[in-house]
Design goal:
Largest sheet: 9 strands, antiparallel
CATH superfamily of one domain: Translation factors
Low-confidence stretches: none
Shape: elongated
CATH class of one domain: Mainly Beta
Number of helices: 0
Length: 117
């Protein structure tokens, strides 16, 4: 069934527990935040708190400036400009300049354009 405005819709989220598929406009695929609990560090782990870094979410993508926060066993990353089409299960790599500082598996994403289900 097409949307009321006639524009295509994209799958934004699948919620298996409630058997729900959330759809929305292409703009809602942009992610303002990614987070994960499964991370590892190349060297000494950063102290809990906020730090600047660059983050890469695809093997051939350029790293982008971001701010990361490590708190209560969760690493949350907010890019300067939203990512396009990131999904849980992907890996993100954090850099300090050209030096890899760590990586994590994305468990959660937050859309830059929230859509109600």
């Amino acid at each position: 069934m097409p949307a009321a405005d006639g524009k295509p819709r994209f799958v934004l989220e699948v919620r298996p527990v409630s058997n729900t598929v959330v759809v929305g406009p292409k703009e809602a695929l942009a992610c303002a935040e990614i987070a994960g609990e499964r991370f590892s560090w190349a060297g000494r782990a950063p102290a809990e708190g906020t730090f600047d870094c660059d983050v890469q979410i695809r093997a051939h993508a350029d790293p982008v400036p971001a701010q990361a926060e490590l708190a209560d066993g969760v690493l949350t990353v907010r890019p300067t400009h939203p990512f396009d089409g990131v999904a849980p299960g992907q890996t993100a790599v954090l850099y300090d300049g050209t030096r890899v500082i760590g990586q994590f598996t994305i468990d959660r994403t937050v859309s830059a354009v929230p859509v109600d289900a």
